[in-house]
Write a structure and sequence with these properties.
Layout lengths: L1 H7 L1 E8 L12 H15 L3 E5 L3 H10 L3 E4 L15 E4 L3 E10 L19 E9 L5 E8 L5 H18 L4 E7 L7 H7 L8 E2 L24 E5 L3 E9 L13 E8 L2
Parallel strand pairs: 1-2, 7-8
Antiparallel strand pairs: 1-12, 2-4, 3-4, 5-6, 6-7, 8-10, 9-10, 11-12
Length: 267
């Protein structure tokens, strides 16, 4: 009975920077790879998916191609649909959306389009509170994309994220996904995983999988870094972690590889 109970409370989490559709990527432009991105997501079959760099055309394409999912999130430029989204997809049949919101990674987090510190561009975090329809349990999911240049911005964004988590989610299960643009051991990473926080978070990475996510499109590239993460609170036990290297023999579907983790809610 305990095994069945744990299985019923399992959740497959995925995070994916899909590369924005405005980039001058030649053979890797969005129109040539969007079906491969959708096929990869469908093959993993996540219960929840955090995405990054999603422009409005990509938002609409994924909404159309990922049947069975609802989507939540706004564009970072204006809080509507301008600019990149860090939107969250979740299985419609499995979850009810209880609450959700967005905040900007800045000193004025409620101001759409704001940026601070040494950030190169505007960055956003999207969050939802989801209820498992069958088991009447709930959890929070935060999804974000930290700045690619600003070291202080990443550090302060990590602190801001933890403040939001600690204020919204005390005693609640929490999952965090995203492209953080930092590697393990950096100050931002240490802030996220610091055990003394109200809601300490654990990195889902396991050493049986390759230690990278950011490789570019070319499958032969060996200059890779781990900057995409799934973090989770102590409410979960981890069952698995997977780096997905699906490709067409020459290119990956995005310049980032996607990762997934299977988590089991503690009873």
């Amino acid at each position: 009975m305990m095994i069945n109970s744990l299985a019923q409370h399992a959740i497959t989490v995925m995070t994916y920077n899909i590369r924005n559709s405005n980039a001058a990527d030649g053979p890797n432009k969005w129109k040539f790879r969007k079906e491969n991105v959708a096929n990869l997501i469908r093959s993993v079959n996540p219960d929840v998916l955090g995405t990054q760099e999603v422009l409005l055309d990509q938002y609409k394409d994924l909404q159309r191609m990922l049947t069975g999912y609802s989507v939540f999130g706004v564009g970072r430029n204006n809080g509507k649909h301008a600019g990149e989204h860090s939107c969250i997809f979740y299985k419609t049949e499995k979850y009810n959306l209880l609450n959700g919101g967005n905040f900007w990674l800045s000193e004025t987090p409620t101001k759409p389009g704001s940026k601070s510190w040494d950030a190169a561009i505007t960055r956003i975090c999207t969050w939802v509170k989801l209820e498992d329809k069958e088991h009447n349990t709930s959890f929070y999911l935060f999804n974000t994309h930290f700045d690619h240049r600003g070291v202080d911005a990443r550090k302060n964004s990590a602190r801001l994220l933890k403040r939001y988590i600690d204020s919204l989610c005390t005693n609640s299960a929490v999952i965090v996904t995203g492209d953080f643009n930092f590697e393990p051991g950096s100050e931002g990473y240490n802030i996220i995983t610091e055990a003394t926080q109200i809601t300490p978070l654990k990195d889902a990475y396991t050493s049986n999988e390759p230690n990278y996510t950011d490789c570019g499109f070319d499958v032969t590239n060996t200059q890779c870094h781990r900057i995409d993460y799934i973090f989770y609170s102590s409410h979960y036990k981890q069952k698995g972690y997977k780096l997905h290297r699906n490709n067409d023999g020459k290119y990956f579907p995005s310049d980032h590889l996607t990762i997934s983790a299977e988590l089991l809610l503690n009873n």
